[in-house]
Design brief:
235 residues, mainly alpha, 10 helices
């Protein structure tokens, strides 16, 4: 994780993060100046819901591509549950497939063209992007997926940029994100269809996912502490 911290401290990365933050704030200010309020948003939501119900493929591809931007994945999954509430099992399967495709293309975008571009930018300096040690691959994936505060799209790009092995990255990422994601979809099914059983099942999956996340984070912390103790004894 020391390598990851050094990368975040690099000037180019910090400038990129500042620019993204500025764009987000600017978008909110523009919406406020245009008079966007709750009534306008409600009308837009109703029209959007009707359109997606008539064009289900648009919602599927939205889940594939939009989470690559600063757009909450959970909002898209709830929307899928509401729009596809009559077929909850199909809704979950389609969302898992869309998430897998999103995890895949964002990974390769970061691992190939994005990393190559950054390597060219910093080629003249003394800093070089280090290769992640083989034993740290699973640890990095779990830390990124299970640590609160990292947006979904940032997780994908960082793991692709650090070139965690794709055949390890995809199933572990889909397991971590898909479990709670399925709960969010079922919560949307219950919300949209007024079916309490689906809402309870969705909330249960989210709670179980949160508990498992807590245990895995504790396991990672114990491993880190044991590693530090071992290093101290060796010294």
């Amino acid at each position: 994780m020391e390598m990851f911290r050094k990368l975040l401290m690099h000037r180019c990365v910090r400038i990129a993060l500042i620019c993204l933050t500025g764009i987000g704030i600017g978008a909110l200010l523009v919406a406020w100046k245009m008079g966007v309020d709750l009534a306008v948003l409600k009308g837009l939501w109703e029209r959007c819901k009707d359109y997606l119900a008539d064009h289900p493929s648009a919602l599927f591809w939205a889940i594939v591509f939009l989470p690559a931007l600063p757009i909450p994945t959970s909002a898209l999954l709830v929307t899928a549950g509401i729009v596809w509430r009559d077929r909850p099992v199909m809704a979950c399967l389609l969302c898992l497939l869309a998430m897998a495709l999103n995890l895949s293309w964002t990974y390769w975008l970061a691992a190939r063209p994005a990393r190559g571009f950054v390597e060219k930018l910093i080629a003249s300096g003394s800093f070089q992007i280090p290769d992640l040690p083989r034993g740290d691959h699973l640890k990095l994936i779990l830390v990124m997926r299970l640590t609160p505060g990292f947006p979904f799209f940032v997780q994908n790009y960082v793991l692709g940029f650090m070139r965690a092995p794709f055949l390890l990255y995809l199933p572990v990422s889909l397991l971590c994100s898909g479990f709670i994601g399925t709960g969010v979809v079922l919560g949307g099914v219950g919300l949209g269809g007024g079916k309490l059983k689906w809402a309870i099942l969705g909330i249960s999956l989210i709670v179980v996912g949160g508990i498992l996340t807590h245990f895995v984070r504790g396991w990672l912390m114990k491993r880190k502490q044991n590693g530090l103790k071992t290093q101290t004894l060796d010294v």
